[in-house]
Amino acid sequence: MATRTRRSQRRTDALSRERIVEAAVELLDTSGESGLTFRALTERLATGPGAIYWHVANKTELLDAVTDAVVAAALAVRPSESPGSPQDEVRAVALGLFEAAEEHPWLAAQLATQLSRNPSGTVAPRIFESLGRQVRALGVPEGHWFTATSALMHYVLGAAGQNAANTGSARALGPGADRAEFLDAVSTAWEGLDPGDYPFTRAVAGQVRDHDDREQFLAGIDLVLAGITALAPSREQASPTE
């Protein structure tokens, strides 16, 4: 019994959960979810499946752990050591998730899965807490905390996911694909729409050519923050008149 225990201890020491998660991220980045199999993982880690199952029970648990690890790393990134305003902190959280979704093409789909299938897990509360603390710091009344934070979170994940999908589509066009040419083609197509049915779309078609995805994303954050900030009572409302 003692020998078996020592062997198990050596196995867990040699192959940590962190190493498994790291290898799984690499497989997901290169091969997508379909390429993440326990067979591929054992080959990459040069171990047997039993050693992996010692740490994770199945692929679902592994995907949960991988998603949580990537999100935790994204939320830990800050532009400077000194804390900024609540608005700056929201932008930092949002940009961290935006860049993580762009770097890891599989992440957006996993985030959507986590929020719908496992909202009580670690991923959803981790993001919600990071944004909710700043909503509270903005002075938003407590009765609006959940709705305001949910709106912010849905924008961040939705826009980051759409950008990741756009990036994936661009990669699928091949190494010679040019983003400027693609946007020019879209803009030209919009300009050619029926003016009676699509007057607004035609009017903004030219803006498609020159827009920057990151700047557009952050501008959207500012719009959402403007609405959330409007919920906070003004100083005149908060302070009694003399």
Descriptive account of the structure:
The model is unreliable at 1-13 and 235-242 (pLDDT under 50). Helix 7 (107-117) runs antiparallel to helix 9 (145-172) and helix 8 (123-137) packs across helix 9. This protein is flat. The termini are far apart. The protein has 242 residues and is mainly α. The protein contains 13 helices and no strands.
Helices and strands in order, then pairings?
Elements: H1 2-14, H2 17-31, H3 38-45, H4 49-53, H5 59-76, H6 86-103, H7 107-117, H8 123-137, H9 145-172, H10 179-191, H11 199-210, H12 213-229, H13 235-238
Helix pairs in contact: 2-3, 2-5, 5-6, 5-7, 5-8, 6-8, 6-9, 6-12, 7-9, 8-9, 9-12, 10-11
Brief descriptors of the model:
mainly alpha, 13 helices, disordered C terminus
Briefly say what this structure is.
The protein is mainly α and 242 residues long. It has 13 helices and no strands.
The helix fraction, in percent, is: over 70%
Distance between the termini: 79 Å
Low-confidence spans? 1-13, 235-242
Q: What characterizes the major β-sheet? A: none
Number of helices: 13
Category by helix and strand content: mainly alpha
Number of strands: 0
Q: What is the global morphology? A: flat
Mean pLDDT: 86
Written as H for each helix and E for each strand, in order along the chain, the element string is HHHHHHHHHHHHH
What share of residues are in beta strands? under 5%
Radius of gyration: 23 Å
